[in-house]
Each structure stands twice: as C-alpha cells, then as structure tokens.
Write a structure and sequence with these properties.
about 300 residues; six-stranded antiparallel beta barrel
C-alpha cells in the first residue's frame, strides 16, 4: 500500500477505498464529504494537534482514499499493537478454515462502482444486509458512497444492477445502498444471501482474539483477494472520530477494501472495514463495530 508522506504529522489514517482523498486538518470544521480538490492533485494537509475537524476531496482516476490525522505526542498517547507469533501449522489451519468460510460468504458480498467525470472511477466493497419483497439493501462505508447518489452494484457472479444511495450515518462510517429487486434477474436472486450476525454474542464477546477474514470481488464476479487475520479489540478508542469507539483488526487491508464485511470463523458478521492507520505503534486496521452497523442500518432504513 502506498504510504502518504508525513509532513508535520504524527499519524496517518488511510480509508481503503478508491476515489476520494479525505483529511483531518486544523481548520474550520468540515464534514468528510466536503470537496477539497477537483484536478487530480493529492494535497497534503498540515495538521494541528489541537483541532481535528474533517474534510475530503476528489483526487481523480483510481486514486486511493486517505485521511490524514494528527496524533498526540508522549508515551501515554502512543498506541502499539503487539504482533503475536504463531506456529506455521496453527496459522495454516486457521487460514484454511477461514478460506472455506469466505467462499460460503460470496453470495452476500458486492462491489459498488461509479465512473467519474475525469475518466476514472470510485469504488468500494459492500454486503447484503437485507432482502425484502421489493428491495435489496446493501451496507458499505459512508465515505465510499458519499459523493454520488447512483451506483453500479456487482454481485459475486458478475451481474450488474443499478443501485441508489439510501442514506448515510452522521457519526459512524456507515452507508446504505438500495437495489430494486425487480432489477435483479430471478435466477440471480435465488443465489444471493444476506449476512448473518449475532448481537447477543457480540455483546458477550470478551477480549480474546477472534479469527476473522474478508473477501473482495471484482466486476467480473472474480475474487480479487481474501484476507485472514484477527479481531484484536471489539471496541477501542479511535483518535480520528467523534468520540466513538471502533473495532481493531489485523488484516493487512488495502485500497478498495472499504465496506468489506468482516466474518468470524462461523461465518457471522462482526465488523465492517473502513481504514487503516499508521502511528508510533505501527500499522493498525479499523472496522465499524457490529452494534454500530446494525443500529446505523436500522436508522437509515427505518427498520426496527
């Protein structure tokens, strides 16, 4: 993954989608969806350790999404992730089992795509949250779908249908895209599935690491890659947010993984990828907590 050159910065957060540059700067408060750039030039924003408002810009064709944030200095604020060492046989066994889980999850995952006026595109991942009689609802990141209302949605078999932005959350990086069921061929509908999750199990989840993974598909229905790793912390302090806690995972995520469903070894949804950070403690991968995904989805769609 290309790293953003640090210029008077203490930490960097990268949103792992394609198409938008987002920054946290020490200026007047902005939303993550405010446009800063139009001509394909990636501008580095100098940071202030006193103010951390949010902004964004379009960098042009197939560019990565990057948030630049300021961390605080001092030993008390440095955050480190201890990388545990595992034997090769244990790792291979966990990865093999997770690969099987991710293969079973393919009918639930999508790619969300939009061509840009500059001749490039912006894209991200997503997953099927619910299928009603009339509508298929997809969850993804707010930063993936913020700029456009209409999207091309690709299912795991390569089928492409039109979708529209149903809404986004103001706090967590959650967005919802709606697809009319009549736009999906019946033979494809029969193959699709929704993610499953266990809120009660999530609430009871302790601090033990969980084996998790993601799978990302392309527009041809091909699997672009799968990643296996661990859920490190169910909810932990997040420097670049609005006081909310986020889920920390270890997955070595990359551009385009934004909006990917994070599955546990039982195939249950536990989080949704939105970015990775680099600070004094090294690289850290981040996802939206399951409880926040569900509550944001219900608020956006009006479901209870």
């Amino acid at each position: 993954m290309r790293r953003v050159h640090r210029c008077r910065m203490k930490a960097v957060l990268t949103l792992c989608g394609i198409g938008l540059l987002l920054g946290l700067g020490g200026c007047a408060k902005q939303t993550q969806d405010t446009v800063l750039e139009e001509n394909g030039i990636t501008e580095q924003i100098q940071q202030s350790t006193e103010q951390m408002p949010q902004g964004s810009g379009q960098t042009g064709a197939e560019t990565e999404q990057t948030i630049q944030g300021s961390g605080q200095t001092g030993a008390g604020t440095e955050q480190t992730v201890q990388r545990s060492e595992e034997t090769g046989s244990e790792t291979d066994g966990a990865e093999t089992a997770m690969e099987a889980v991710l293969e079973q999850a393919l009918p639930c995952v999508v790619q969300i795509y939009h061509e840009t006026p500059e001749g490039g595109h912006t894209a991200g991942s997503g997953f099927i949250m619910e299928m009603t009689d009339d509508t298929v609802y997809l969850c993804t990141n707010r930063h993936v779908i913020a700029k456009y209302d209409d999207w091309d949605v690709y299912f795991y078999d390569g089928t492409c249908v039109p979708g529209s932005k149903a809404g986004t959350d103001d706090v967590y990086d959650v967005g919802v895209v709606a697809v009319e069921r009549t736009a999906i061929p019946k033979e494809v509908q029969e193959k699709l599935g929704t993610v499953s999750y266990d809120l009660a199990g999530w609430e009871e989840l302790g601090n033990a690491e969980l084996t998790v993974g993601i799978v990302r598909i392309g527009r041809e229905g091909d699997v672009l890659h799968t990643l296996t790793g661990s859920l490190l912390r169910k909810e932990t302090e997040f420097l670049w947010g609005q006081g909310e806690k986020e889920t920390e995972v270890r997955l070595a995520i990359t551009d385009g993984d934004s909006g990917s469903a994070v599955f546990d070894e039982n195939g249950k949804l536990v989080s949704m990828i939105f970015g990775c950070s680099q600070d004094a403690g090294g690289e850290r991968d981040w996802g939206v907590p399951l409880q926040a995904i569900v509550s944001c989805y219900e608020k956006i769609t009006g479901e209870t």
